[in-house]
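debug: dumping io for the single-chain case to check the tokenizer round-trip. Nothing else runs in this session.
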Amino acid sequence: MASVKIVPAKLNYTIVRGDDFADQVTIKEGDPAAAVDVSSRTFTAQLRASPDGTAIASFVIDMTDAATGIVGYALADTVTDDLAGSYVWDFQQDTGGVIRTLMGGAFVVLKDVTHAG
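debug: decoded output
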């Protein structure tokens, strides 16, 4: 009997407290995989202390290049300034009510030495 596993891609981050964080993903589909227009889709990403914990932060989603399949996600320095330690995060796509977690993993925030102000 065949089985199919649909699990999010694992992507771990380590950043420094008080720094801006930004990354992007290109959504590809088909065989062979090619970037698709995701302008009509909704994306969300959150940071939590544990998968069942309360959301600590929601990433800002950038859909500027969504027509070419590129979706950005970011946390401002004002958000990361209040963090230190190990967290979990994930990134979800909503396509007309069909929710799929595309990626996620560990999100470690290291303490910084230099503080603004």
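debug: round-trip ok. The radius of gyration is 16 Å.
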